[in-house]
Amino acid sequence: xxxxxxxxxxxxxxxxxxxxxxxxxxxxxxxQSALGDITYVEFPQQDQEVDQFEQFVxxxxxxxxxxxxxxxxxxxIEVNQKLEDNPALVNKDCYIKGWIAKIEIKDMDESxxxxxxxxxxxxxxxxxx
Length: 129
Prior knowledge:
4 helices; globular; CATH 2.40.50.100
């Protein structure tokens, strides 16, 4: 399982990469692996306000449809249009090319509610036992 060291994670297997006040959001390697081949990504609306841990996207795979929750509160400023034609990018490269949306973060303190890469690794290990 690939886990990016400088990203933050949720227990629902979303990640956020924070640069300045912008958070890039996607699903983890664990999540894309569990879902199987992703066939469709439903994007949030441009300028949509999202709350931390609120459902804001859904993805469909050959196995199931799954809700994706926002790791932090903010306003959607960009979606990854490449996923419209090629949703499998999430499977191929969930952290770099397969990101889903970018938000302008409303409250940086919410990052305290997320797991570091090390905490997420430990969390995944606890799920296996």
